[in-house]
Amino acid sequence: MNKNKRFYIAVDLEGVACTIGTPGQGLAQGSAGLEYAALQGTKEANAAAKAHFDNGAEEVWVWDCHGTGYNLKYDLLDKRCKIVMGAGSGKRFPGIEEGFAGVLFIGYHAYDTIDAVLCHVYSSATFQHQKINGEFVGEAQIDGAVAGKYGVPVIFASSDDICISQMNASFPWAETVITKRSLAWNSCVSDHPETVCANIYTGVKKAAYNLDKMLTFTYEQNFEYEIRYKRIEPAQGCHYRNPDGTLFARPDAYTRVGVLKDIEDIFK
Ligand SMILES: [Zn+2]
Question: Ligand 1 centre and the CA of 134: distance in Å?
Answer without folding.
Answer: 24
